[in-house]
Each structure stands twice: as C-alpha cells, then as structure tokens.
Amino acid sequence: MHSSLSPARHTDTHSADTAVLLINLGTPDTPSPRDVRRYLAEFLSDPRVVELPAWPWQPLLHGLVLPFRSRASAKKYESIWMQEGSPLAVHTERQARELQAWFDARGKRIVVEHAMRYGNPSIAAVITRLRANGVKRILVLPMYPQYAASTTATAFDKIAAALRKIRNQPVMRFVNHYHADARYIEALRRQVQRYWDANGRPNFAAGDKVLFSFHGLPLRSVELGDPYYSQCMQTGALLAVALGLAPGQFCVTFQSRFGYQKWLEPATDEMLADLGDADTSRVDVFCPGFTADCIETIEEIGIEGRDIFLEFGGMEFHRIDCLNEAPAFIDMLGEIALDNLAGWSNEAPLTSGSTDLFEAA
C-alpha cells in the first residue's frame, strides 16, 4: 500500500520570499516491513534519540532491534494506515494546506511548506526547493509544543546540516516551544470540549478519570537539562484549569517507553491498568503533545491502551483525537507565525520563543 501523498508545492502558485516551514517527526512511506525498517533505522540512529555511543548501539540496532521491531511495527502501521497514507503524513500535509489558506485569506504573501525530520518530505529537499523558488526568509515552526532535544533540537540539527550545503543561505528563525501559549491551551480545550459535547462528559462524581498522555522521555534526558517534563506538567495543569477539572479528576502520564532505562512516570499503560483494576467506569485519554494523530495515538493509545484498560476491569474507554486540522489550532499556528515574523512582515513584536540566524539574506 503506497501513500498517494506528495509534498505540498505551495511555491508553485504562491510567489513570496517568506516561508513558514512546519516540521513533524516523520513516518514510513508505506507500512511494509522494508520501509518501516528504513524509517526506524534513521530514527533510532539519531544520537539525540538514543544517547548511546555508536560502537555498541549500532550492532545491537541492526542485529537485534530492527529485525524484530520492524515487522511488529509494520503490522501496527498497517492497522491504522489511511487511504491517503500514514495518518501523521496526511494530517501534517492538511495542516500545511489549511495554514496556507489562512494566510491567503488575510492577504499575507507567505509560503507554507511541511517537512519531516525522518523520512519524506525531507527537510533538506524542502529547504532546497524553497530557496530555488526565491524564498529568502524561513520561519521554522516545529509541531512539538513542548521542547525536547530528541524532537525540537534534532530538527534544528537537520536544518543546520541542510544549510551547510547551500552557499547563499536564507535567513532563519526558529520557534522552539509554545507549551503554555494561551492560544494553544484554548485549542486543546476546544478539542476536548467538542468531544464531550458529542459523547458526554465523564462522571467525575463516580470516579471517572481523564489522562493527558504525553510522549515519554528517558529520565536521564531531563536530568541532563531538557525542560520537557516541566513543560508537559505545565501544559497539563493549564488545560485542566481551562476544562474546569479538579486535581483528582485528571492525571498527566507518559507513553511510548523503549529499552530498559528508566523513563518519565507515571507510565500511561501502567496507569490504565491501575485504573481498570480499581473498577474505574470510564477513562478519557487525550494526547496534548501530539499535534497530529499518528501510530502513538491511534494504535498505542486507541487500541493497546483500550485493551489494557478493559482487560483490567475498566468499563468505558475514550480516545480523544489530536488537534489535527481543528480551526482553533490553525488559527493558533497562523498567529504564532505572524508573531515570530515580526521585523520581516512588521506584524507584531517578536515573541521570546524564537531565534534569529543570519539576519542578512
């Protein structure tokens, strides 16, 4: 099953010298074991993702991890694959198209493109195309609300590597987090409330719970200085207040553990087991750190997480969709972009979460 998606070529019809580049993690081109293995090899070879010396890790990766993990992961990808392609690729391309339409409707001569840190469309290919089409200034807007070296920083690393091959480089700005931005929290609130309006609100008086599940990190990453944990906790607290939740009605958890080292806790799967074992009638799981639905939200939470909760005695499991193309999220992306384009577009003062490089194009 091959994806029918192709990189959005907004530059063909939107002549402008300023661009916004959305960056997400990435996905295999197809759910075949070969393509999944290729993707995982690139992802797990990144020293910011697996912080181990290459000499012991690479033989282990290629000799043990990839042969087993690729086939198992391929089955999971196949179970969630959409007609248009991988959910992450589909939603990220749609987000780019919606944001382009948002700028167009406001008369902004700004090009929107998207790229993936691992896989396609690659960061290098998109930057090269933007530069060839006359773009002189690029605002990089990662789709990671909370900063981590293994997500945001490695995307910036890849951009720097791409720029090394360009003689006449574009001016670059980077947004490295927006975990507590009021517009982001409001977009999250609306997404959850929309689901509750359609499916009913949990009965907190009866002990129902809401989990805000974020992607996990090894504890060592936080000990080395990543602000990720504190930013996730702040996002969860702000969202809980926005939804009117009391402390005992929600919990921030962390998913997607890998390997044997200690990871951030509490773990989502263990919490779901504990809630089921405690005869919790209903649990709602929302993933605020994922801006687009993907294998971690659809399969890991929606299938594996549901099975764990029900197996341990829970009665009713609800997975709330990620922000995807929600209008409030597109509004947020557009407004944050305009904030950080100040000085290029004279729209608004520069926010504190951005960085300028090479201020002469």
UniProtKB/TrEMBL annotation:
PROSITE patterns: FERROCHELATASE
Pfam family, one: Ferrochelatase
Keyword Phosphoprotein appears in the UniProt entry: no
Catalytic activity: Fe-coproporphyrin III + 2 H(+) = coproporphyrin III + Fe(2+); heme b + 2 H(+) = protoporphyrin IX + Fe(2+)
SUPFAM superfamilies hit by this protein: Chelatase (SSF53800)
EC number: 4.98.1.1
Name assigned to this protein: Ferrochelatase
Family: Belongs to the ferrochelatase family.
Keywords in alphabetical order: Cytoplasm, Heme biosynthesis, Iron, Lyase, Metal-binding, Porphyrin biosynthesis
Involved pathway(s): Porphyrin-containing compound metabolism; protoheme biosynthesis; protoheme from protoporphyrin-IX: step 1/1
Binding site for Fe(2+): 215, 296
Task of the protein: Catalyzes the ferrous insertion into protoporphyrin IX.
